């Protein structure tokens, strides 16, 4: 595959060898496309072909096969992708690699003080499985929403994957939000559970997340109760 015209002020231009050995070039060659411009043009003209071919290229396997790559019968605004198909993100982001390359590094975290934590795919899967099991014990199941109010730590990734393993939906909640903002997002998503941490260090000071999460919980009505608990 050949590159199109490359501007002189480009930040980086791949070498011919790099380009020749890239997955993009291999993908283009398999489909008889000689240049990046041809690949781009066909992907725009035939999006259903393109994304179906990408899924095949990546080796993604759906637990429930999809009926059609793109269904835009109700208008492009309401397009449905891979209609009818089902797969689990945790399987493809973690479990697959934990089985194939268990000792490979999956997560690298560095704290403000320079401390570094590395998790392998095997350890990440173990932590995600534990999170999923605990959530299941709390009654979380397919389609339920789970709020994740966590600092940027490896455990947050395990929590997200644990939610995905159950077919539940994770609702990210920014770690800097106050109680009312958290409660609003949990109420809007009808979240069953909120995952949080005691706190985290920011610029040398500890941020108390657990107290904020508890204040947010007091702002939420109990299930079946329409009253607002804020300020009570």
Please tell me about this protein's structure.
The longest helix has 17 residues. The protein has 2 domains: 68 residues, no CATH class; 131 residues, Rossmann fold. Helix 3 packs across helix 4, helix 5 crosses helix 6 and helix 6 crosses helix 7. By secondary structure, the chain is an alpha/beta fold. Strands 6-5-7 form a 3-stranded parallel beta sheet, sandwiched between helices. A two-stranded antiparallel sheet has the order 1-2. Strands 3-4 form a two-stranded antiparallel ribbon. The protein is 42% helix and 17% strand.
Question: Strand content of the residues, in percent?
Answer: 15-25%
The CATH C-level class name of the largest domain: Alpha Beta
Largest sheet: 3 strands, parallel
Low-confidence stretches: none
Tally of individual domains? 2
Helix % is 40-55%
């Amino acid at each position: 595959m050949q590159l199109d015209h490359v501007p002189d002020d480009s930040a980086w231009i791949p070498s011919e060898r790099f380009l020749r050995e890239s997955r993009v070039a291999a993908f283009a060659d398999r489909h008889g496309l000689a240049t990046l411009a041809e690949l781009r043009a066909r992907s725009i003209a035939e999006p259903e072909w393109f994304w179906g071919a990408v899924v095949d290229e990546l080796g993604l396997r759906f637990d429930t096969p999809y009926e059609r790559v793109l269904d835009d019968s109700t208008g492009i605004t309401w397009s449905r992708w891979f209609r009818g198909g089902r797969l689990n993100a945790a399987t493809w982001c973690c479990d697959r690699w934990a089985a194939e390359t268990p000792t490979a590094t999956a997560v690298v975290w560095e704290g403000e003080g320079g401390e570094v934590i590395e998790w392998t795919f095997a350890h990440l899967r173990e932590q995600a499985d534990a999170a999923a099991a605990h959530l299941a014990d709390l009654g979380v199941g397919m389609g339920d929403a789970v709020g994740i109010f966590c600092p940027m730590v490896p455990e947050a990734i395990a929590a997200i994957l644990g939610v995905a393993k159950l077919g539940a939906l994770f609702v990210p909640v920014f770690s800097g939000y106050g109680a009312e903002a958290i409660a609003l997002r949990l109420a809007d998503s009808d979240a069953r559970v909120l995952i949080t941490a005691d706190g985290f260090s920011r610029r040398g000071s500890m941020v108390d997340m657990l107290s904020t999460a508890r204040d947010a919980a007091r702002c939420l009505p109990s299930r079946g109760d329409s009253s607002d608990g804020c300020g009570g």
